[in-house]
Amino acid sequence: MHPGYRLVTIRQLLQYRGGLLEDIGQLPSWSESLLTDPRPLQEQRRLLAKEALSVPPLASPGSRCVYSNAGYLVVGTILETLTEETWENLLRRDRTRGEP
């Protein structure tokens, strides 16, 4: 991970203020894995998040709003790691939970 991301928060990632690259399609792994990678999606996401975090920030985290789906990729990967569930299962579970 690039040192520029060490203090980034989940909130900053979700508000496009994490400093991550604008176009996740710029990552070499994105085009390589899009349709041909046989590895599980969870593993592919983990590798893409790692690659996105290795690129120097476009701006200091929290300082500038830059639209980037990479922040959501990183947050999804964090959730998968913490819950030991796939992103797909987390979304499915949340959708079927219903109103509190």
Task: Describe the model.
The chain has 100 residues and is mainly alpha-helical. It has five helices and no strands. Helix 3 packs across helix 4. The longest helix is centred in the middle third of the chain and has 14 residues, at 41-54. It is globular, with a radius of gyration of 14 Å.
Q: What's the total helix number?
A: 5
Measure the end-to-end span: 38 Å
SSE ordering: HHHHH
Low-confidence stretches: none
Proportion of beta-strand residues: under 5%
Radius of gyration: 14 Å
Count of individual beta strands: 0
Structural shape: globular
State mean pLDDT (0 to 100 scale): 88
Q: What's the helical proportion of residues? A: 40-55%
Q: What is the structural class?
A: mainly alpha
Q: How is the biggest beta sheet arranged?
A: none
